[in-house]
Amino acid sequence: MITPPKSLLKYENPVLIRTTTDTSKDPSSIVPPSRFPDGASTSTSLDILNAILPPREWMQDNQLWVQHVSSAPCTRMEVVQLEEHLYRQLRQRQAKEVGICPIRRELYSQCFDELIRQVTTSCAERGLLLRKVQIEINMTLDTYQTLHESSIAYAIRKAFQAVENKAEVEQRNADLVKQLQDLQNQLKMNKARCFEIEREAKEEAENDKEAFMAEINDIMEIRKNLKAKLEETFVQK
Question: DSSP 3-state assignment of 19?
Fold first, then answer.
């Protein structure tokens, strides 16, 4: 059994169209009963109302039912009740307050349909204009939703690419770490070599200084001896 879901849009009582036990008749040839008793003709407003908000159909116990939107004018109390019903449905169905939410969009769309119905019953032209505004808003929302879904798909693709490149990045990172360790070891070796060279240079300089001082001392001793001999020679003469 399939029954229509509850809606904020106000409908009339459902009408039985046919049963499925008689399969000899073409369903498309069955004309639904008139909504107007005593052979009254439909008005322009009602035709526009049915064109804007088509009736809904469903099967129940092998019977086809049709339910038209209500053509009764609304009152101020009905508008207040519509607002209360909207907020109650938002809370009961746990619609999101921000962001893209199909539930919230569905409920506000039903509320907009009900407002269009209420306006159309009093002025068909205003109802048609509101319907055009609703269509334009829906097109804009669909565009934004498509853009949002495209951005999400792009982000997912980038995430997959990052996962696929993760092994390459990790290998590159490991190579860089090893290269850094090698450079650090080489730096330590160069520092040790520099320290050894400086130590050797310092020892060599000290040795050269000692050798130079020893040579100077030897020269001074030789000079002293020569001077003494020279003085001795002058004294003997």
Answer: strand
**pTM for this prediction:** 0.57
DSSP state of 75: -
For residue 112 the two structure tokens come to: 């907009």
Mean pLDDT of 77-84: 91
**Measured torsion, CA atoms of residues 72, 46, 11, 102, in degrees rounded to the nearest 10:** -120
Q: Give the separation between CA 133 and CA 139, rounded to whole angstroms.
A: 10
What letter represents residue 55's amino acid?
P
Residues 92-118: tens digit of each pLDDT: 999 998 888 889 999 999 999 999 999
Asked if 10 and 117 touch (Cβ cutoff 8 Å), the reply is: yes
Name the helix (H) or strand (E) containing 175: helix 166-236
Burial class (CB in 10 A: 0-12, 13-18, 19+), 127: buried
d(CA 16, CA 164): 60
pLDDT above 90 (res 56): no
Tell the residue number behind the tokens 């159909």, with chain if given. Answer: 57
Which residue's structure tokens are 């290998």? 171
115, 104 contact by CB (below 8 A): no
User: Cα-atom radius of gyration of the chain, to the nearest Å?
Assistant: 51
Q: Any residues with CB less than 8 A from the CB of 148 and at least 6 apart, and which?
A: 100
